[in-house]
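Q: Sequence in, structure out?
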Amino acid sequence: MLIIYAVVTEQSVGAMFLAGVFPGILLALAYCIAIVVLCAVAPRFVGAGVEPGRAVALGQLLRDALVRLSPIVVLVLVVLGGIYGGVLTPVEAGAGGTVTALIVGALKRRLTLRAVWGALVETGHITANILFLIIAASIYSRMLGIAGLPTLFGEWVDSLGLPFAGFMALYVLVLLALGTIIDTASIILIVVPLFLHALDPFNIDLIWFGIITVIGAEIGLLTPPFGISCFVIRATIDDPSITLNDIFMGALPFAAVMLGVLVILIAFPQISLVLV
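A: Exactly. Output:
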């Protein structure tokens, strides 16, 4: 989503990734705190009373986690480390990640011709979808410019006399509303070109605005009726006793946590921009 936003607004992909580091850490910490609070306040919500599984020693748990996560850590270091360190461009980082994944697959003896072909086909599908979205977004942006809609929209927003907080509240409400019916990429491609001209009076940093946009749009992945993440989880669990409503209700506190973090990031833009 950061890459798509960077393409639409002509920003640096590396800068977008850097700006996402501390917001990502903040989100992770907020989730951890929310889980602890839920354990204390609503123990049944987190599974208290359910028959526990086999106890596992902490040392064994850490060793298993290290073994399972080490390939992912290596990939993250190669791809994001290369971009953050200024050693690799995003394209080169993607190529480096591919080679690293091939090496890891070979070492784990899971690299078969069928697996490679499946990865190539899936990559082709994803690439075609993203490129089609970007092409459509370019046409959409040009048509908006020809029609003068961004200028008219910016003048309308300016006529409302909204302060910065009011403007951001309006923007977040639009993101949340659209997030209930369409996916994140579509939200970015539709909304961002329309709002860009309206940003001028507020002197808003586009890198920071991108982080706000992505997090605000991602909240929609946890809210009904679209909530694509919840549908994916429901299909993955494959347990008839767990309904889609259960998953949406379970995701609701974390959507609220995301909204709270979003408010913090709006109030303190330095969190996103300190590394940039």
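The mean pLDDT is 85.
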